[in-house]
Amino acid sequence: xxxxxxxxxxxxxxxxxxxxxxxxxxxxxxxxxxxxxxxxxxxxxxxxxxxxxxxxxxxxxxxxxxxxxxxxxxxxxxxxxxxxxxxxxxxxxxxxxxxxxxxxxxxxxxxxxxxxxxxxxxxxxxxxxxxxxxxxxxxxxxxxxxxxxx
Length: 150
Known about the structure:
Helices cover 39% and strands 23% of the residues. It folds into two domains: 10-79, no CATH class; 92-148, CATH 2.40.50.140. The protein has three helices and five strands, in the order αααβββββ.
């Protein structure tokens, strides 16, 4: 029964239904992508209501509008970055800068390790014995830069 239904059978409501489904999908899936497809479907619905155009032209219009909407939004957001309320998210090592820790393994030849929580972190700095307190001054990839605390 459902397999015999086509887009034409829903008439003008088809594009509104597609726009609604894409809008709901935007709420469920992370990211900002489906909203632009939903907007394209809504524009096609408005055009189809105003002008009687064949289904193939409606689909082509939807495809073109979708590409334009996604491309335009990507360019806009690349130039107008939205400030984050968690700027260090996914940059865990940077959250340790400015803090003091105890060396777990002595720094020899410029490299040692500190324990933060249940993780050992590679550190670079002046040679120091295990147990010395160090101050994290920076990060290079996932290596913490440290200096001795006096």
